[in-house]
Each structure stands twice: as C-alpha cells, then as structure tokens.
Amino acid sequence: IAGITQAPTSQILAAGRRMTLRCTQDMRHNAMYWYRQDLGLGLRLIHYSNTAGTTGKGEVPDGYSVSRANTDDFPLTLASAVPSQTSVYFCASSPGQGGVETQYFGPGTRLLVL
Amino acid sequence: GQNIDQPTEMTATEGAIVQINCTYQTSGFNGLFWYQQHAGEAPTFLSYNVLDGLEEKGRFSSFLSRSKGYSYLLLKELQMKDSASYLCAVTEGSYQLIWGAGTKLIIKP
Description:
The complex is a heterodimer. Chain A has strands spanning about 5, 10-15, 20-25, 30-35, 45-50, 55, 65, 75-80, 85-95, 105, 110-114.
C-alpha cells in the first residue's frame, strides 16, 4: 500500500441498505477526512478525525457516521442509503501536526443509490 | 459564512497561457490551496499561498491578494495533459478546507 486506498471503487446500492466505505492510509497521518463531490458543487466535508479515537462533524454529516479505532483506518457508514447520497466519495488525510496542512486524497468511491 | 467563486469552464490553446481566477469571502483566512483533478481521478496538490504575492513552480504559478480576497492560478506553455479541473480551497479558523466548485479547463490543439 502506498498513500491512501479506498474500497470499493464503485457500488450500486438499493435505497434503504446499509453500506460502509473503507479508507486506509499508510502515511501515519493523524488527520483524516471524508468528502463528497457532486457535479457543480465543491468538495463538501462529511466527517473528519484529527487523531485516532476522535471524530467530528463536517458540513454535511446527516445520514453518515464514522469511526477511528486506529491511525490507519477511517470507515464511513451510510446507515440507510437514500438516492440523494449518490455521489463520489473521497477520503483524504493530512499529517495532523497542527495548523494548515496539505491534504492527500484517495482515488474515490463512486456510489449510486437507486 | 464562506463563499468561493471560480469560473465553471475555460478553454485555451495548447502552448498558450491561461489564468484561472478564484475569489473568496471567509472569516479567519489562513491560506489558499490550488488542486488539480483529472476526470475520474482524485484531486492532487498544486500550490499553497499564505502571503500576498506570486509563488512560481515550474509552468504553474499562483498569486494571492489577501486584502482583495483574490487568487489566480497561471498555467504557462499549456499541454494537452493540463486538461483537468482546477479547485481552489481556502482555510478558515478551524484549519479545515472550504472548496470552490472547480474550473474545468479544456485545452485545444
């Protein structure tokens, strides 16, 4: 593994189903983020984690949950998917040393909710 | 609140120069990033400006005016591989990034 990986690459999901998007980084970064990207809109922050064991809500957290049991993994769960959650989901990380930092992105998961 | 504006789409010719503008309104500004995103791929870091002025990095340069809430990304000697979306993002007090919708740059031969 080099950098950030996400799984699955893409998924078609029936509305009402539960889904977990996986994100793993091997850079030992403290901070991790989940964004969604929709056509015509900027990346929007869903949840973030400044360090293992802590999480916070971003701009659009409703319908999503996250956990940060260790430094490397930051899964995003949709408890009961709805069509408006159709989007491209990006996981990102940054060193988390404090202050402004460059974020590094995973390849994304393309999710279609029907 | 925060607001970031970029043109939706621009077209330029291979070998030419193009300037992509970004204006922002935010509280507690701490810096501005430019990222490149090819279609179907992840955003990748291009530049970061925290002080006023021009930062040059090869064919790409980025300018910031904090007093005007304005930045631009300048791409010189355009190549076909520069066809991508260019995302402007600003930091605010919490050090999280607020993203513009991106500018899709189309390069024509």
